[in-house]
Amino acid sequence: MANECCSIQLIDRDDVFNVTGLEHFMKSMKLAKHGLSYAVVSIMGPQSSGKSTLLNHLFDTNFREMDAFRGRSQTTKGIWLANCVGIEPCTIAMGLDGTDGRERGEDDTAFEKQSALFALAISDIVLINM
Ligand SMILES: Nc1nc2c(ncn2[C@@H]2O[C@H](COP(=O)(O)OP(=O)(O)OP(=O)(O)O)[C@@H](O)[C@H]2O)c(=O)[nH]1
Ligand SMILES: [Mg+2]
Questions:
Q1: Which H or E run contains 46?
Q2: 99: how many CB neighbours lie within 10 A of its CB?
Q3: Per-residue pLDDT of the chain (130 residues; tens, 9 = 90+)
Q4: Could you tell me whether strands 38-44 and 125-128 are parallel, antiparallel, or unpaired per DSSP bridges?
Q5: Residue 36 Cα, ligand 2 centroid: separation in angstroms?
Q6: Cβ < 6 Å from ligand 1: which residues?
Q7: Which of 74, 64, 123 is nearest to 99 (CA)?
Q8: Which chain residues have CB less than 5 Å from ligand 2, an ion?
Q9: What is the full DSSP assignment across 58-111?
Q10: Domain locations in the chain?
């Protein structure tokens, strides 16, 4: 059981997969010793709908949350992973870039479609936050 939360950006907005970050993340949470007994929970939904806040409350993760005093803007960019503290079996939370973001415009939906498929493919549970 991990007692410290570690988080990484797995895929950035330029579609770059963070291979070294993932290796470090897997080592830090000793994923290899769990074999196949681990779970992945991901969350998707509109921008600023509280996805990161919900994951942080449910799983004691440390995803960055929007600070309304510093303006309303997109906070989670790309795809982020964090290990869930104190949860058995070993669980990984995955936060996706929010959909419908004003920063990206109406037409740039390729990333959100691809990241939704990625989340459906690799997750045990997909939360849809509306
Ligand atoms: N009133 C209220 N505010 C909330 C709730 N959940 C989150 N917030 C606030 O809503 C804002 C956005 O929350 P985030 O968790 O950053 O939202 P997000 O969906 O991860 O946003 P992106 O990563 O930008 O897509 C923050 O200022 C939170 O404090 C809630 O249940 N009620
Ligand atoms: Mg977020």
A1: none
A2: 17
A3: 556 788 999 999 888 999 999 999 999 988 888 888 999 999 999 988 999 999 999 999 999 998 877 777 778 889 999 999 888 889 999 999 877 766 666 667 888 889 999 999 999 999 999 8
A4: parallel
A5: 28
A6: 47-53, 65-66, 68, 74-76, 98
A7: 74
A8: 51-52, 75-76
A9: HH--------GGG-S-----SEEEEEPTT-SSEEEEEEEPPBS-TTT-SS--HH
A10: 7-128
